[in-house]
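Researcher: I'm comparing several assemblies side by side, and this is the next one on my list. It has 232 residues spread over two chains. Same procedure as the others: predict the full complex and return the structure.
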Amino acid sequence: QVTLRESGPALVKPTQTLKLTCTFSGFSLSTSGMCVSWIRQPPGKALEWLALIDWDDDKYYSTSLKTRLTISKDTSKNQVVLTMTNMDPVDTATFYCARIRGCGGDSAFDYWGQGTLVIVSS
Amino acid sequence: SYVLTQPPSVSVAPGQTASISCGGNNVGDKSVHWYQQKSGQAPVLVVYDDSDRPSGIPERFSGSNSGNTANLTISRVEAGDEADYYCQVWDNSGDHRSVVFGGGTKLTVL
């Protein structure tokens, strides 16, 4: 059974760095073709893709946010970490992590975490 | 960067058929995936690779993709289908890979 769960602070101050952790089970990120990605959704708005890391440790980022994002993985802990620097109130959103199986192709996100709401406010 | 365009809203009566479009330049050359997001919940994959359904998704959900438009069709719409629907593709321009979501369509069941 595949599960993903996001964790991190619910509230961050402007200019701070956000660190989120995705802890997953039911698959290994060392298996060829596996990927984990982060997606965010501001309240009442659309989904926005942020970053992705694959089984081979290749990393891909949203062009518009690339300078602020870092994604990494700890295969032994079954975790993927996303950091986002210089947080601003407009970054307030629910952050999701999701799995892709068959990441070498143009595959879909087949499993999602429940999401974690991050509010940016002083 | 690649853009996917969806209508903001679609309304349909119960038992009727709903069609949600997803427009993009030559989107027919890409694999389109569709997600259903009910209020307060995480997205759920309902159609992948243009027209395939994951296990557990009713046959009422179907997809097509050709030219500049992909479509998600929901037959015999039920009240429980009311949700936001998002299309998604990969944009593999040059050596850069990225994921693109459409702006979402709110399906209202009258």
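Model: For your comparison table: The interface with chain B takes residues 37, 39, 46-49, 52, 60-63, 96, 98, 105-110, 112-115 of chain A (CB under 8 Å).
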